[in-house]
User: What shape does this take?
Amino acid sequence: MTTALFWFRKDLRLKDNLAWTKACEAHRIHPVLVLEPELISNAGSYRRRQFFLNVSALAAEIKSIGGELSVIRGPAKDVLPRYIRENNIDCIYFNEDTTPFSRQRDDQLLKESSVPINTYWSGLVHPPETVLTQKNEISKVFTPFYKKWVTLPAPPSIEDSQPIFVEVQQNARDETQDLIPSDSNEGYKAAADRFERFLKVVDDYQESRNFPSEDGTSFLSSDLHFGTIGPREILHRLSPNREGHRQFIRQLAWRDWYAHLLFANQDIPSKAANPSYDSITWRDDPAEFENWRKGQTGYPIVDAGMRQLSATGWMHNRVRMITASFLVKHLLVDWRKGEKYFRKMLIDGDVAQNCGNWQWVAGTGFDAAPYFRVFNPVLQSKKFDPMGRYIRRWVSEIEGLSNAAIHAPWEHDQATLQKCDVKLGETYPFPMVNHADARERAIDTYKEARG
Assistant: This one.
């Protein structure tokens, strides 16, 4: 029986893992994970911590069935060839990814590998280049993509594998022991538990998902990013005949669409999908960016979101849109700067999803919000956090204000504010910009770029 190296990447699970199953069917297995220095250094502390917790859980699961996960530090192009030689590997298996880094690395490995390489897709419901228009290309508009996506047969369930492991001759795990927790409650089991909890409330998803003070979302974004649970397993448990289920299925399609777009357009992280918007004259004021980053804009809903991000590495999706729109449209800071900051800070920081969402908000992307759509943070706050619970959780300086005053403290008289120990400009900042003025400035700037 031949020996295969299985390379874990963004698929930190054994269940619903197509490449893993295929490898186990035909070979004895060397499970390997590579710590790519560039990827580790570009991730913020929250994502690094979650990654290593997931790796620890995966290692424990593999150990429980008789194997050992080899964790190797260094660029894959350097460390994998050496590992292959030292352990008499006959072939390699892994699941593909859509990011520019992954595709360039994998292309080089495919060209230079001394052994056959077998690749599959397990991070998406449908792989890239399988949801195409009549012109045999990916739709630049989501709705046609979605209509085609839902007509495709759901990928079949993948049976659990029974791997035969090979004793590792050259195990580099010791040098990374300090990075990997000795035990972890994360990984597949934690992801599956989160999904089970979500299934109990998914019927309310359409109504509750936009309210940041409620637990109305799945909280599976980081699990899908790291691959501790697979989207196909999720899809198989959902019913398109139920409204909440159908809306969440639609989100899985959005996730696929952004990944497919990145696969076909590798410059999405650096260039506007609508080229005319690459000529926008951004203000890019460093001090204003810092106030936004620290949650000191004077707009409570924006500040709450940015503080939640700094404190937890996560932010509710509705608030992600509000804060991103504020940076790009109100402050005229280049969307790429905000995207890079979010991607570094977020536990679920994902190239395809983050770039897709930022380009949507900025109005520069495929099927994006129109350039003249500028989120009004006060109206958004009143609509989606009407009781101010989310704001009070993260902006403690104004927690004593009434529900009427907490969304826009500057609109209320000084006496009202002083009763709650709020003094604008001292205990809490004045708004950085006037919404109406900022909106007009943004629209004029975009119009100029459009010509």
